[in-house]
Amino acid sequence: MNELIGVIGGGPAGIMAAGTAGSCGKSVILIEKNERLGKKLFITGKGRCNITNSSSMDLFFDNIITNKNFLYSSLFSFTNRDIIKLLGDNGLRTKVERGNRVFPENDKSSDVIKAFIRFLEKSNVKLRLNSDVIDIYLNEDKFVVKTNNDVFLFDKLILTTGGKSYPATGSTGDGYKFAKNFGHTIVELKPSLVPLEIDAPWLKDLQGLSLKNVRLKAYTGKKLIRDEFGDMIFTHYGISGPIVLSISNHLNKRYKNISLTIDFKPALDNEKLDNRILRDFELYNNKQLKNALNDLLPQKLIPWIIKYSNIYPEKKVNQITKEERNNLVGVIKNFRMHFKDFRPIEEAIITSGGICVKEVNPSTMESKIIPNLYFAGEILDVDALTGGYNLQIAYSTGYIAGMNV
């Protein structure tokens, strides 16, 4: 009799696992608690879905933060080119944008999900939507899966229930509980790719200010942890945006005494910035300092740059001393911020932590503790930077689990 395979979780890892197993002739049931598949996939990339990243695999691995060695087998078994081809075979045309990010050609994440549904249909996967898994246990050699609607008996089971970020999409951490009940260790869950809270008096004034092409640095004590170049935004609680999310992934590794700095003019060294300021001062020779920096800095930022430079804001620029100018350069190049905390895990793009990968076979994604139990995707203790890398990890681990059931 043909084995019955159960896959719990209809995100990218679950879809790949179910579709792959089904395409190999297995009888597969994919169980999803939501009313439709890929709910989190639908909102990725601001609704455009950053499908994967087309970088070479060497560069790809440079962007994996946690347990990259565990992922070698899966990522080389099912690569970024493979997912682009699979989606293409199911009617989706793609394009490559800045940073080698791959998107659907028409910028609609819904079309990505439609292509995945075609893949599942071709693979004869049976869907059970609106099915919330309440309990899972072993009865002799069968996995008993109880949902709010049915009870299933599976010969093999793949858990692809995601992390704890974006709980409104169904990622509520259920899979960790089930895995723990089977004896698996859960590495502490932490927010990753998440905005940061800052303790500062200027938050209200700078809220909503977007910055382009700045450099953000993070330190523990005096030691540099990471620096990122790109875009960010000030919020009511602190800072967010692409470089903030990327740097957060490095900060959640138990660092203490974290501090942050912004270089508002990274393209200019101190001397060139000083020369630029001198040119502006010549142009606005009789103006007060607070009215002479509009060509250099955003309006909202100027009062705080002047304040931290210890210069009287109404002082005429023709009276500014070289020492004061040096202070101004120093603050623009090294605007200090006091790190307070990460935003809650519910606001993170992904979850750091999860099932300990030492307890999972990297070549098959099978549990080393419970035979015929497999894992894939964000439920595992693996994570990467933004840019399509985390979704590719989901596809690749899902593929290898689906191949090996």
Automatic annotation (TrEMBL):
The keyword Flavoprotein applies. Residues 190-350 form the RsdA/BaiN/AoA(So)-like insert domain. SUPFAM superfamilies: FAD/NAD(P)-binding domain, HI0933 insert domain-like. Coiled coil: none annotated. Keywords: FAD, Flavoprotein. Residues 7-403 form the RsdA/BaiN/AoA(So)-like Rossmann fold-like domain. This is NAD(P)/FAD-dependent oxidoreductase. Its cofactor is FAD.
